[in-house]
Amino acid sequence: MKTVKEISRLTGISVRTLHYYDEINLLKPTQITDAGYRLYDDTALERLHSILLFKELQFPLKEIRAILDNPDFDQQTALKEQIGFLELQKKRLDKIISSARNMIMKGAENMSFSAFDKTELEQYAEEAKQKWGHTDAYKEYEQKHSDSSDKTEQLMQIFTEIGKIKHLPPDSKEAQNLMKELQNFITENYYLCTNEILKGLGQMYISDERFKNNIDKAGGSGTAEFTAKAIKQIK
Questions:
Q1: How far apart are CA 115 and CA 231, in angstroms?
Q2: CA 220 to chain CA mean position, Å
Q3: Are 7 and 18 in contact (CB under 8 A)?
Q4: Which of 5, 19, 68 is nearest to 194 (CA)?
Q5: By CB neighbour count within 10 A (0-12 exposed, 13-18 middle, 19+ buried), where does 146 fall?
């Protein structure tokens, strides 16, 4: 059995992320001690391994959970599929490295952009998603979350709520609670949104006119700037 800190050191995943995986029922600890420490056995580690590989296939966390929780999930078959995808990634990375070296040796006149073509990689990922998406749990998830416009509307609603409290200090409890809500929404519906990623988004909310205009449209003038300031206060 391994503790959260041991798992973190072993995998490079932050303790906070492992706690979040527990909160959303993606990776539950095998046991919780009387002192409140989470412990993980080899079966939990195997599940974590599958989670990380599916993340490489660009699966959102909710989809990963739906797939892994399905009783028909075949880990060995999935592993073979994931290996194939990773080999394609390696092949593409080798091409990019070769292209960069060629630029050093021969200059811009002989540069090629073919190495950056992601068509084969995206096709493989899509086929994998179609295959592993044929689970009852995944279909149920799709019925609830397939409409991307609904996600956008929900995201904009968060900015509407932020706009209502932009008169408060950016480090106020109300503002920080909404920043946490924003961060969790992005993680649950798009990708793992760490503090670093969220801070990067905060800068984009004010530097990119499209984002700034849409956010200010939802929450009123100054919402994007207030959001960026509030995100900076996250610790």
A1: 37
A2: 28
A3: yes
A4: 19
A5: exposed
Q: Is 11 exposed, middle or buried (0-12, 13-18, 19+ CB in 10 A)?
A: middle
Closest CA to 123 of 94, 93, 92: 92
**189: amino acid identity, one letter:** N
Closest CA to 120 of 91, 152, 161, 160: 91
Return mean pLDDT, the chain: 81
At 92-102, the pLDDT tens digits run: 777 777 777 77
**What whole-number distance in Å separates Cα of residue 141 and Cα of residue 67?**
10
Q: What are 32's strand-pairing partners?
A: 38
136-185 pLDDT, tens per residue?
544 554 555 555 566 788 899 999 999 999 999 999 999 999 999 999 98
Structure tokens at 211: 């984002």
Torsion, CA 188, CA 151, CA 128, CA 57, rounded to 10: -50
In this prediction, residue 89 carries a pLDDT of 74
Q: Is the pLDDT of residue 132 over 90?
A: no
Q: How far is CA 231 from the centre of its chain?
A: 18
* CA atoms of 54 and 58, how far apart (whole Å): 7
> String of b and e for 127-140 (b: at least 16 CB within 10 Å)?
ebbeebbebebbee
Q: Is the pLDDT of residue 209 over 70?
A: yes
